Design the sequence.
């Protein structure tokens, strides 16, 4: 086990490589590092897991916590044009978020924060390419909902929360009599 301190950009150096923490740790905080042959497990000083990343020489890529990235960008929307994470996004999403009007940029970042928690980044890209960068958040949300609804969802969900014997009641006549309603 070793330790590193997050720099002002929220990154640590391990094995002569920079590992971004995507705002999961504040700058200046110590990070404990469990080193395995194929991965690094990053922990807080209280040994709570922050994230796990592959070792640089394995050639594997780490998953990016997009919700955290969009949360950080929402705090400083002007940083969008300089962010290394924005450059990792698909071109359609980059164009969508790099709008010059800051009020619109904030609205779009808020939407991306929500969408990244619900939909795949690939689906967001697909809807943006089909709808264009001038589509409203409401239009894109509707398009994402329609795209998501194409999944195999059962027509009826089994109801399991009601007490036994109450699920078969088809008529409310008994309830109406108890309540004195005719």
Sequence:
């Amino acid at each position: 086990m070793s330790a590193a301190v997050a720099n002002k950009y929220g990154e640590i150096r391990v094995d002569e490589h920079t590992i971004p923490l995507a705002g999961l740790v504040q700058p200046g905080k110590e990070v404990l590092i469990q080193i395995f042959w194929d991965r690094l497990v990053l922990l807080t000083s209280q040994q709570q897991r922050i994230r796990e990343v592959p070792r640089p020489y394995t050639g594997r890529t780490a998953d990016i916590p997009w919700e955290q990235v969009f949360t950080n960008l929402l705090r400083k929307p002007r940083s969008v044009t300089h962010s290394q994470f924005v450059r990792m996004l698909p071109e359609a999403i980059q164009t969508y978020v790099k709008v010059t009007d800051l009020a619109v940029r904030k609205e779009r970042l808020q939407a991306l924060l929500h969408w990244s928690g619900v939909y795949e980044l690939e689906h967001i890209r697909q809807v943006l390419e089909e709808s264009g960068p001038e589509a409203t958040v409401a239009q894109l949300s509707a398009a994402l909902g329609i795209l998501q609804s194409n999944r195999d969802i059962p027509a009826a969900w089994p109801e399991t929360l009601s007490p036994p014997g109450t699920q078969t009641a088809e008529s409310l006549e008994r309830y109406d009599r108890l309540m004195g309603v005719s």
Strands lie at 2-5, 11-14, 17-20, 30-35, 39-43, 49-54. The chain has a mean pLDDT of 84.
